[in-house]
Design a protein that fits this description.
Hyaluronidase domain-like; mainly alpha; globular; 117 residues; two-stranded antiparallel sheet
């Protein structure tokens, strides 16, 4: 991964944690367009995750949130290890937990955060 891509990924994670999901999505989409290797699905999965939270917080669109969470889980489920300091299995657990709560009609206790080391 280039230093430029790494810095954009860190910025995307920071935007996610600031709950600026739209901007996070935009940054991840730019990276996704630029990447042409096996990591492309990781970026797309994280992009779907940010989009899901944008639907949840910005539009209160539960159906859209659930669809995006499913897409995120689908893209990320083949990755079983950390990626560039992001614990992908933990992200998947967050996605599944949020999906389960929303499916039950429950609001999340708190919004998820991403950690990058």
């Amino acid at each position: 991964m280039s230093a430029y891509t790494r810095s954009r990924l860190i910025t995307a994670v920071n935007k996610f944690n600031e709950q600026d999901y739209f901007e996070c999505h935009e940054i991840l989409e730019d990276i996704w367009f630029d990447v042409h290797d096996s990591t492309k699905d990781i970026y797309q999965g994280l992009l779907h995750y940010a989009t899901a939270l944008y639907h949840l917080t910005g539009k209160n669109n539960i159906k859209g949130t659930l669809m995006q969470l499913e897409k995120a889980a689908d893209k990320l489920s083949v990755f079983t290890e950390n990626f560039q300091g992001i614990d992908i299995p933990k992200v998947l657990r967050q996605i599944k937990s949020l999906h389960k709560r929303l499916t039950k009609g429950e609001a999340p206790k708190r919004l998820p955060r991403l950690k990058i080391t």
